[in-house]
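Today's session is about reading a structure prediction critically. Students often jump straight to the picture, but the first step is always the sequence itself: look for stretches that repeat, for charged clusters, for runs of hydrophobic residues. Only then move on to the predicted structure, which in these notes is written as discrete structure tokens rather than atom positions. Here is the chain we will use throughout the hour.
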Amino acid sequence: MGGSAVVVGGGIGGLAAAIGLRRIGWEVTVVERAPVLADGGAGISLHANGIRALDALGVGEAVRAAARPQYTGGTRVPGGGRLARMDGTALERELGTPIVGIPRAALHHLLRAALPAECLLVGAEATSVDRSGPGRVRIPLGDDVLEADLVVAADGVGSRLRAEMFPQHPGPVYSGSTVLRALTERPVELDTDFELTWGNGAEFGHIAFADGRAEWHAVLNSPPGVRHTDPLDVMRRRFGTWHEPIPALLNATRPDAVLHHDIHELLTPLPAFTGHRTALLGDAAHAMTPHLGQGACQALEDAAVLAAALATGPTVASALARYDAERRTRSQSVARAARRAGRMGQRLTHPLAVAVRNTALRLAPSRATVRTILRQADWTPPSLG
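Below is the predicted structure for this chain, in token form.
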């Protein structure tokens, strides 16, 4: 089955969906509302399931070449004591690939490079879909209208297309956490590839990149909407006494490089990921908290499964039914697991509860950390045919 598709949203999930659709012979237009592709964002870790999805889409090797494998790291306390170690070698042995770290801008660039430039429509906003006809759908874009056999709504956590499809759904809610993050301006000496440090109601982590720079992030319990005139100074006051390399990471960061976003999630699961000739994908379908590092990986899984379903399904309707059946249960389960991980990790504040958790982590065998990651990362993509 072939056809034409409009993908709304030029982020990781939208670009991956476009690659998958083109790979099975579909004509694709990606509509991105940003007037300029600034490749914002900091860094990202990709687990084996995300890498396997990229392999199915034909871009896995390019991403591996630009990324840094994560073999060393784990979880610590602010004073530097070790709670748990991450055994990247064991993960690679189990899954065939380690977790990798890559700047978001580099990942966006690699995904765009797999698409012809003419299929990306920048500075255009699609806020609705006309599904009134019996056949193709129509997507208004200002004074223009695109027609397609399929719409992929990859327009993020605040998806307007999701709200149009499910007007009774409450939509995203604030998770109780806010995140500040940045890329360092220069290389930083790091002893680990990836690390998290948990304090009361706060988490600080880093991802090391192939060029020696790093991404750092700080997740804090906070009311929504709080912003700072000098966020880097706030980070230094909040985390400056925590163990190295946290102060070094902050000192290697430009003040204007710090990004600040409140974390929203779809606390109420959607009843479906599809409607008439429309598939919700990525955060539009299952926005989750970042505590398992699975948000982008789940979007990549979505893209691979959608392409496989359309490659083999006799009709768009049957392919979307398969996509919904395969993706909704899994991604919503991962979202629940991420929420639980946050409650036992960064969100935890009661001193006794923190002490019990820390003791349990210190006593747990290293294999327990591997098993925790395997629960979400051990996923095999379907064949695209």
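Discussion point for the tutorial: The chain has 13 helices and 18 strands.
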